[in-house]
Write a structure and sequence with these properties.
Blueprint lengths: L1 E2 L10 H13 L9 H20 L5 E6 L2 H15 L6 E5 L4 H12 L3 E5 L9 H7 L4 E5 L13 H8 L6 E5 L18 E5 L10 E6 L24 H16 L1 H19 L6 E3 L8 E5 L5 H10 L2 E2 L15 H5 L4 H4 L2 E5 L6 H25 L1
Parallel strand pairs: 1-11, 3-4, 3-5, 5-6, 6-7
Antiparallel strand pairs: 2-8, 7-8, 9-10, 10-12
Helix pairs in contact: 1-7, 2-7, 3-4, 8-12
């Protein structure tokens, strides 16, 4: 079975699984307990925090652990918006953010916040000039994802951060769930105040997320009931998951240069193969992440293609796993200017460092075979 759904979740490293099992067996004490076993468990969490800080080269902030990227995004946006309400009520974002950002901001709008959603161009990008033009005296947060989870486009995070350094009262949040361990990120130099990540996107365990918080920044907690995670997330920490997540992140960042090149080569080969299939339309354009290819087959339901791929031993997806069960056109593709038919037929291929050139060839051949089968159905609709 070929697994081409890394943007949804990744197969965990064997080392990560082993570490998680060892910690679960040996360090089961509550890290908030005062006895020695509790203190030893708490040390593991702090060591994991330090591992992530060093891997991401952050010296001016703290990392806290959450249940995943969705909670990290919620805590970053709701926590900052409510903490700094006295500064203003305006938030800037884009039209192609992950649902955990988009729907969080919809909730904040219901509470009286004003949200500006910057449109992307047909390739899926915004510009720093758009951000600057949208700023108002009431702007308190700018939230822009680094890599789009559906089509893989990369936003100009460094340029936006450089702009916002002139506005120290504005908080810059970046959803980096799809970019940590896949692309370089310079949190301190890019002026990022809050950055969200998720372990299961980089071959770590599910149920563990990260949130970077710049020193001096305060957030209103979403959960009450304890002083865990620097007082920002009440509840007993998932210690085995935390330790395993830190290991997965460190491994991903350390091996990133080699894996970036490998995945970029695989992506280029897949694009070359797909360029011969005139029925398919590629979505997104450079700059783009090395691990995602997204295409549409207008007039065909993507679920049909996904199931036909699975019959040939290949797993892929239609769009974000969080919204793949919704029978609606892709919100991201609509934002790019695609019509409803185009936006309703997207397929996402996402891969990792375990894939080889032969896997790409097998995928391309499977798609050729599928199109041959579907072509008569396409003609019958005309």
């Amino acid at each position: 079975m070929l697994y081409f759904d890394h943007a949804a979740s990744t197969p965990p490293h064997e080392e990560v699984v082993r570490v998680m099992m060892e910690v679960m067996k040996s360090h089961y004490a509550n890290p908030s307990s005062m006895h020695q076993a509790g203190k030893e468990t708490d040390k593991l969490i702090e060591r994991a925090r330090d591992v992530i800080g060093k891997a991401m080269n952050t010296k001016n902030g703290d990392w806290i652990f959450t249940s995943g990227g969705t909670e990290s995004n919620n805590l970053a946006l709701k926590g900052a918006a409510k903490q700094y309400r006295s500064r203003g009520n305006h938030i800037i974002t884009t039209t192609i953010e992950h649902a955990s950002v988009d729907e969080t901001l919809l909730q904040l709008e219901e509470e009286g916040y004003h949200v500006t959603r910057l449109p992307v161009n047909k390739e899926g990008h915004i510009t720093v000039e758009q951000v600057e033009a949208a700023l108002t005296p009431d702007t308190i947060i700018v939230s822009v994802m680094h890599v789009n989870n559906e089509i893989g486009t990369i936003q100009p995070i460094r340029d936006v951060g450089e702009l916002l350094k002139r506005y120290p009262q504005i908080i810059f949040h970046v959803d980096a769930v799809q970019s940590i361990g896949k692309l370089p990120i310079d949190i301190d130099n890019w002026g990022i105040d809050l950055l969200s990540g998720s372990a299961h996107k980089l071959r770590g365990p599910k149920g563990i997320g990260f949130l970077y918080i710049r020193s001096g920044l305060q957030l209103k907690p979403l959960l009450s009931g304890g002083a865990q995670e620097l007082g920002l997330r009440a509840g007993t920490q998932h210690v085995p998951g935390v330790v395993a997540a830190a290991k997965a992140l460190r491994m991903a960042v350390e091996s990133m240069p080699d894996r970036m090149g490998q995945m970029a080569s695989l992506r280029a080969e897949l694009l070359r193969e797909l360029s011969e299939l005139k029925e398919l339309r590629m979505n997104g354009c450079e700059p783009i992440a090395p691990h995602i290819v997204h295409f549409s087959y207008p007039g065909m339901k993507p679920e049909v293609i996904i199931h036909m791929l699975e019959q040939q031993g290949i797993m892929a997806s239609t769009k974000s796993a969080c919204s793949s069960k919704e029978d609606k056109p892709s919100r991201v593709l609509l934002a790019l200017g695609a019509n409803a038919q185009h936006a309703s037929s997207g397929v996402r291929i996402s891969f990792g460092d375990e894939h080889k050139l032969s896997d790409i060839k097998q995928l391309a051949e499977a798609l050729r075979h599928i199109i041959v089968q579907l072509k008569p159905l396409e003609r019958s609709k005309l």
